[in-house]
Amino acid sequence: xxxxxxxxxxxxxxxxxxxxxxxxxxxxxxxxxxxxxxxxxxxxxxxxxxxxxxxxxxxxxxxxxxxxxxxxxxxxxxxxxxxxxxxxxxxxxxxxxxxxxxxxxxxxxxxxxxxxxxxxxxxxxxxxxxxxxxxxxxxxxxxxxxxxxxxxxxxxxxxxxxxxxxxxxxxxxxxxxxxxxxxxxxxxxxxxxxxxxxxxxxxxxxxxxxxxxxxxxxxxxxxxxxxxxxxxxxxxxxxxxxxxxxxxxxxxxxxxxxxxxxxxxxxxxxxxxxxxxxxxxxxxxxxxxxxxxxxxxxxxxxxxxxxxxxxxxxxxxxxxxxxxxxxxxxxxxxxxxxxxxxxxxxxxxxxxxxxxxxxxxxxxxxxxxxxxxxxxxxxxxxxxxxxxxxx
Amino acid sequence: xxxxxxxxxxxxxxxxxxxxxxxxxxxxxxxxxxxxxxxxxxxxxxxxxxxxxxxxxxxxxxxxxxxxxxxxxxxxxxxxxxxxxxxxxxxxxxxxxxxxxxxxxxxxxxxxxxxxxxxxxxxxxxxxxxxxxxxxxxxxxxxxxxxxxxxxxxxxxxxxxxxxxxxxxxxxxxxxxxxxxxxxxxxxxxxxxxxxxxxxxxxxxxxxxxxxxxxxxxxxxxxxxxxxxxxxxxxxxxxxxxxxxxxxxxxxxxxxxxxxxxxxxxxxxxxxxxxxxxxxxxxxxxxxxxxxxxxxxxxxxxxxxxxxxxxxxxxxxxxxxxxxxxxxxxxxxxxxxxxxxxxxxxxxxxxxxxxxxxxxxxxxxxxxxxxxxxxxxxxxxxxxxxxxxxx
Lengths: 391, 391
Description:
homodimer; alpha+beta; L-amino peptidase D-ALA esterase/amidase; Ubiquitin-like (UB roll); six-stranded mixed sheet; about 30% helix
């Protein structure tokens, strides 16, 4: 059972804090520290595929080549992206500061940032914030929520989830943003923790598979940001070994719940849309077709209008890099078979899109591949949030 | 010099008409006929790359394998897409009707449709409209404008252009829509005519090259519709041979002017955005990078806000399938060098985006490839038009 009142400190062996370091001009919390007290320090990370990578992404990719982490420091209020060599030095200095205060090596410290691209961070505030955060480190619901809160930007709520296995080990985590590419301040950051005992080789492959089937299936406005990062930290403090399949299921469940919270909190959203494609030649082609619908602005404005305009869906699927015969295309919207064999079937008025949830089911009849993408509508609120955002 | 008061009947040998056939419920003009009286009947077509192709696209692709056309019939008020075998029979019947009345073969008649996807056309109205249009066929400014007007859907104005070469031959044409993928009713249709004497082999390659560098470089909301069609008809009635290069230049100039009119008329647009990428490894990679910016909703909402948010531009380029080193990325917005070597340079306040036109120049410093894409902003008007569209 997922518990949304707990997060990164639900597993044993972790302490966390979230403080107001003065990075954000408005004085809200903006620096989070998560510490893994072990005994294990196994860790893995999945990073943005964007060719423009923020300094903290370049740093964290580098330190994670060891497969170990003792701490993660995250800041909101600035992405530290497109900041050149000086920005990378800022990230390095932040990791060194955390290492000094905790008595570990900088190579054990990952760094994540989120906020406006192209601006240097106020390093005095960041470094003083680390001192403050170390003093606040704790366990329990309060520390966990503080950690999840200090990373948010335009999010309206902090997002946490935890799950305890019957064998006595726990997976917890937080996330901020609204998808692998969110609107507005854009970045998706997530830290997942566990006290299970897990083979080191399992950690990386478990995280990669979980991210692929959860975070990478939420597509609010295409692409990935300069800072997107998901980290998995293993303390092993429960002293209980988790089987690889149980472990994968738990990590995936926590990630999936965080993704549902990200989708719900995307800016200006009025509809939660699930696009499932069946009958593609491969699963990858099914995902590509579902993504084509999820990224199509004509479909997204129709979803906003609650208009079951399946012609736009057919057009979007036709633009996907997915092979199919248009004369076999089936489209079902909220249970109404609006298109069968590439032509009109049930009248579109039979599809009721007045509620919050829209389910689009597409069958290409070209194979066995299945894939799902979660997305949102394109609303006035979306335009408002993303154009009102002051530079 | 481009003349926007003339169109498909500017070249000799062409007659045209546009009539209200009763296909649109509101009684506005909805059927256009263009007839090539020769002596040549050479023709070429470029069609949507969407896998879901409307019946008229399938028909016109088929008849154009001969490289000849004597007439084109176009209707607004219905796309005849996703209408199955019955819809294809409707297209065939329309071509047969035109052929009967004109005393030619159905194989000499192309058909284009635009409007809502998934609905059959009211064939009584279409067939009666053909009789009406044949009676109205004429030359001169009035006939040309009527032909350009009866194809429009959500366009606010008819779009024509003509150009006469010093040697005495002319290229003319009309277009409707707002790009190779337009918002709302989506389809882009264009008919280009010429009275030049042109080698048959030149016709097809000239049209393809012209479309690639004009219509295919306007990207309002990604993808291509089920019905997009550009046709080039050659009468040879001027009796003057056009050199291949002069002919290509004239066809491209007419297409480029029509594209500028399409961009200006895209729904809800407040900004005309030109994205030019230089220094890519190849021209194709430059176009791909420019297209990534043009399709990015975060960039498009920032354009709407007049916000020179170059971080979003950097992020969009980083998501393109284009190789570059982020530490060499230069971005210039309306002349202001906001990003140099991947980091902030001129302050963003130096870029004035208060006017209608926005020029984004990106240099990747990875080669010699150059490419440009025209696009628009993502405005409240866009959401309004595309969600208010009643199904």
